[in-house]
Amino acid sequence: xxxxxxxxxxxxxxxxxxxxxxxxxxxxxxxxxxxxxxxxxxxxxxxxxxxxxxxxxxxxxxxxxxxxxxxxxxxxxxxxxxxxxxxxxxxxxxxxxxxxxxxxxxxxxxxxxxxxxxxxxxxxxxxxxxxxxxxxxxxxxxxxxxxxxxxxxxxxxxxxxxxxxxxx
Length: 168
What we know:
alpha/beta, globular, 5 helices, magnesium, metal ion binding
């Protein structure tokens, strides 16, 4: 069983209500600032669920900490956008159009899992190439905004989970 399919562990899961776009931005920014190189966030949810919005807010916060302001487009057509920030690279991958998991090697994504902060939309397209250590973030509409369910896989996520809980 892959870690992203493993049963939840007490104290390693978090469910947040995001009533509006400002809440999504606030939680995304807190997440972005709490991550370190080698951290991956697997963003799950249907079309329009808020995966890109959460990733953009996180990336913008990391870039702002470096003094950079950049346009953060969706990587739907390029598959991956790479940003340079204080502390290393940030990868934002949208794998919706990925033809086969092996294409992630060509992108360099599997190497980035070890050295960069990575946000991956449609991570199920990676199959067995999913990183063992990741935050699994599932977004969905709940009738009054969005819900964000976070499951931590691997060690070292206490700071990020605390930052998310405080931002909500």
